[in-house]
Design goal:
The chain is an all-alpha fold. It has one domain (about 10-290). About 55% of the residues lie in helices and about 0% in strands. A two-stranded parallel sheet has the order 1-2. Helix 1 (about 10-30) packs antiparallel against helix 2, helix 2 (about 35-60) runs antiparallel to helix 3 and helix 2 packs across helix 10 (about 195-215).
Length: about 300
């Protein structure tokens, strides 16, 4: 599969450059935007940053650039603007692939041992952007309150406890460095742009709201299978291109080491797209459903090059 689908490193370099230009332009204008210009800025930024996350996602699987050091360095750079440590995001995402639709990863299901109210609050937090807020605050936690990452403090939330139990402690020093860079980077941006706190927060929350609400749309009520528990969702062509074919999500879970450029081609060989992204999004508002426990399930095989 790797020989048939080489990493499009030149195209990816051009995409990264374009993304950084657009994001930089948004930071340039955030201090002077108001009214409808602020609304337009939020729209552009939210779309641009979701595209950036799709690029970070390629870096998670080390299919952004062939050289691992270059791949990870660009991932770290782009994650500064998420903002969250790249190595934290990577651990979370690869863990998602290994445990997809298992009891530990079924955010849309509640089991007998779950607190139903907390499960619903967590779910609607995903749909309203609070999930992004939590991830974006991770830098502050890593720098100033690392004790929060103790698994014993998260026994009330199985998903978080399992993630922290499998946390790779060897990556913590680089995560702390990334967290410090994030604080310095955003402090510098706010200083240079004149501390436009309200505009800055509104612009970032617009991105976080879109990002967070899209994070589980490809998995809601999907089959309980680690590799096949996802959907390919229909959307407009320009959105597919902007998100680097991220909506071809079932194909991605079946072939996590195939670069974004070939996902449609691979999908045509094995699968067809399901319902529209919009219908899948609206269905999520039904909330978590009761599920049957299936015990420990983990994906066998590579999820990163």
């Amino acid at each position: 599969m790797n020989d048939r689908h080489p990493i499009p490193n030149v195209l990816n370099a051009l995409i990264v450059t374009a993304q950084l230009v657009v994001v930089s332009a948004c930071f340039t204008f955030v201090g002077i935007a108001s009214g409808w210009s602020l609304v337009l800025l939020c729209l552009v930024f939210s779309l641009a940053m979701n595209s950036v996350y799709s690029t970070i996602h390629e870096a998670h699987h080390r299919i952004l650039f062939p050289n691992v050091r270059v791949n990870d360095a660009v991932g770290v750079l782009l994650a500064l603007f998420f903002p969250a440590p790249f190595h934290l995001l990577r651990q979370g995402h690869l863990g998602h692939h290994r445990k997809n639709r298992s009891d530990d990863e079924a955010f849309d299901l509640y089991f007998d041992y779950d607190n139903k109210l907390l499960k619903h609050l967590a779910w609607y937090g995903i749909l309203t952007g609070l999930y992004w807020v939590m991830v974006a605050c991770s830098s502050v936690v890593i720098l100033f309150a690392p004790f929060v990452l103790r698994p014993s403090l998260w026994r009330w939330d199985r998903t978080s406890e399992v993630f922290l139990r499998h946390f790779d402690p060897t990556t913590f020093p680089i995560m702390r460095l990334e967290a410090a860079l994030i604080v310095v980077t955003h402090g510098s941006i706010l200083y240079v742009t004149g501390f436009p706190w309200f505009n800055y927060l509104v612009m970032y929350y617009s991105f976080g709201l879109l990002w967070s609400s899209l994070q589980y749309v490809h998995h809601y009520q999907a089959e309980r299978d680690v590799r096949n528990g996802a959907y390919n969702l229909k959307t407009v062509e320009v959105f597919d291109v902007l998100l680097l074919n991220h909506n071809w999500h079932k194909t991605h879970h079946q072939h996590p080491c195939v670069p974004w450029r070939y996902l449609r081609e691979v999908a045509r060989e094995s699968d067809t797209q399901s319902e529209s992204l919009w219908k899948a999004y609206l269905r999520m508002w039904k909330g978590p459903q009761r599920g049957e426990t299936q015990g420990e399930k983990r994906l066998e095989g590579e999820v990163s090059r």
